[in-house]
Write a structure and sequence with these properties.
8 helices, 185 residues, mainly alpha, extended, Arc Repressor Mutant, subunit A, Rna Polymerase Sigma Factor, Chain: A, 0% strand
């Protein structure tokens, strides 16, 4: 949707047209969520902020003065909310002395290796057919039982078990191939 059309939508919102909010939400929800999520790396906090942004847009629609593009205005609101979230998370009390303790966290090498493995798994998951990927993600990432997954995707529980079995085999084959390529490199 072009900015002129978005300006008209904001003006309708300012006049109290709830359907205009729905229109704006449908236009900007996905890219705005991606923007917020990329900053916070927390989908739940990103969803909360997304809703706060649209609430503020609704409340502030009458104050929109058309000095910037609508997208810029909305993203600026989102950015401020992300910064506020960082500030809220970052509140720390400063001690006069730091206790002497060795760093017990993972080494830089371990962190790098974990990141590489995560990327390989993400690539392999992306290569699965949608029904296999959904079964794996709901079972392992969303921690749902086979029965719950069956209800969500509308197939028998046995089908879910079969999809998970085959998806795990495909993932294992893909990860082994990627690991072998990494070892040879």
């Amino acid at each position: 949707m072009k900015d002129d059309a978005l300006v008209a939508v904001v003006r309708r919102m300012a006049a109290g047209d709830v359907s205009a909010l729905d229109t704006l939400y449908r236009q900007l929800e996905r890219p705005l969520f991606g923007f917020i999520h990329s900053k916070l790396n927390d989908p739940f906090a990103a969803a909360d902020i997304l809703h706060e942004v649209f609430l503020e847009v609704w409340r502030g629609a009458a104050g929109f003065q058309d000095r910037s593009r609508v997208r810029t205005w909305v993203y600026a609101i989102a950015w401020r909310k992300v910064v506020d979230e960082f500030r809220a998370r970052g509140r720390v009390t400063i001690q006069d002395e730091m206790p002497d303790r060795p760093d017990e966290g993972p080494s830089a090498f371990e962190l790098l290796q974990t990141a590489e493995e995560r990327d390989m798994l993400r690539d392999c998951l992306g290569g699965l057919k949608a029904d296999h990927r959904a079964a794996i993600e709901l079972t392992f990432l969303e921690d749902m039982s086979y029965r719950e997954v069956a209800e969500v995707i509308g197939v028998p529980e046995g089908t879910v078990k079969t999809r998970v079995f085959h998806a795990k085999a495909l993932l294992l084959r893909c990860l082994e191939a990627k690991m072998n390529r990494r070892v040879r490199a």
